[in-house]
Amino acid sequence: MRRCFIKIQAMNLHDILHVALYEAKQQRRQWEFRLFVFIAVIGITLYQFFLQGQGYCSNWKMVALPCSVPLVNAYLYSVVQSLFVILMVTDFPRREKLGGALDPIHARPMENGEYTWGRVLGNMILFGAVNLLVMLCWVFFVNLNSMAPLGIQYYIFYFVTLNIPSLVFVMGLSLWLSRVFRWRYLTMVLLFLWCVVSVIWLPYRLHGILDFLGTGVPNLFSGVTGHVGLWYYLLHRLGFLLLGLGLLAYSVRGMERLPSTVKQVRRYSLGGVTLVVSGLLCGGVMAVSYIPARSARESYRESFRKHWIGMPCHVSSHDITLRQEGENLDVRSDLVVCNLNGKEVKQPLLFLNPGLRVTALEENGRALPFTRDGQVLVIDRSLASGDTLRLRVSYSGRIDERFTDLHIPDDSYE
To answer: Directed axis angle between helix 164-181 and helix 230-250, to 10°?
Structure first.
């Protein structure tokens, strides 16, 4: 029984590869694919050379980081790739009716799922090969002639996390819509409009969650700290990868070719729905992850509104002793606080990042009582006009970055 199962699995893989080979041969002869290769290899390379090349780049941000050129590389390629994927994949149903070079394959006793995955694999091989070729062109003609440092690992990272999920998602969405509407030109118009909206509008809505290119999601590498939000970025890319795979699987039921069994159609439909739901859950997790940060930032603003009385004390001297282990800080502050106001301040205020926990607050070696509300330390000791207060504050912990830029709206901060 086990030998029979292994034999069937091997035969299925053989059929998928067989279809992929035929599909790749047929698609590479199409004018759409040849035009795509020309624009991707020649057009975009020249555009990026004038955008980031030595002597042409006028914006330092475009070459400041080792990932600058690879990221622009991946983004530009994904945009152009998406347009041509829509053009080519929406033609699948028409080509299935015409037959042509795929007629011998249609006659073979293979499942519709194997046929669909074979065609998808054939196109992925073509677009992946062009992607690698474009990467090599950009390395030699752009990166090596730019002020940006060369980082091959960043090309590989964005190829895997940006280009491939974008390709799979656009292929899945295009194939599913083309088999739903069965009108190629309507499908193409809708998808092209959606691409335009994805480039110019979606990156700035809902934290960039709906942008399949990931433009609105933090995806830069710092030369010091590494990726600025790796888990969030990978979750975003995983979500669109699952959505694309789910739509590809579900589109199998839309084929007009008779399936071998009804059970097969149900299996692909259930698998497709499961993958789509999983992709949507990734987006839901990303959206929910912003709720704690927004709540914390609002509580910090409320602390300012509650305690600010318009009579701040002046810090005339501040000596800091700091010891750092990783992200943990252990700090001692010796400061002199002066009351330059015209009247007594009943409870002087100090402000400290909420992620740092105060372990001691002393005046001349004597502990002072205080209360804390978020970032505000309220010292239970009056300070007369013109008087000074010598304090030693000991605190430790990690910086809470949600405390920064409270004056800007949360949408802009995120």
So the answer is: 30
Give the number of other CB atoms < 10 A from CB of residue 82. Answer: 25
| pLDDT classification of 250: cutoffs 50, 70, 90 | very high
User: Which pLDDT score, from 0 to 100, does residue 258 have?
Assistant: 59
Provide the percentage of residues in the chain whose pLDDT is more than 70: 86
Retrieve residue 130's tokens: 């062009």
Report the DSSP pairing between strands 221-222 and 388-397.
Answer: unpaired
Enclosing H/E stretch for 28? helix 2-28
Euclidean distance between CA atoms 261 and 269, whole angstroms: 13
Q: What is the pLDDT of residues 63-81, one digit of tens each?
A: 667 788 888 889 999 999 9
The tens digit of pLDDT for each residue in 311-345 reads: 788 899 999 999 998 889 999 999 999 988 888 88
> What would the two tokens of residue 252 be?
């199998």
> How far is 199 from 177, CA to CA, in rounded Å?
20
Identify which of 105-119, 164-178, 359-373 has the greatest average pLDDT.
Answer: 164-178
| The Cα angle at residue 203 between residues 399 and 85, in degrees rounded to 5 | 130
Average pLDDT over residues 145-155: 76
- Torsion sign (Cα): 85, 87, 93, 95: negative
Distance CA 126, CA 136 (A): 16
Distance, CA of 411 to CA of 414 (rounded, Å)? 5
Cα dihedral 243, 245, 249, 250 in deg (nearest 10): 10
3-state secondary structure of 321: strand
Are 263 and 102 spatial neighbours (Cβ–Cβ below 8 Å)?
A: no
**Whole-angstrom Cα distance, residue 333 to residue 174?**
61
Cβ atoms within 10 Å of 321's Cβ, excluding its own: 10
* Confidence check: pLDDT of 402 > 90: no
d(CA 85, CA 154): 24
Sign of dihedral through CA atoms 352, 357, 361, 367? positive
pTM, full prediction: 0.80
- For 158, the token pair is 């964005």
| DSSP collapsed to 3 states, 165-186 | HHHHHHHHHHHHHHHHHCCHHH
Length of the chain: 414
Distances (CA, A) of 154 to 131, 134, 227, 238, 362: 14, 14, 11, 18, 50
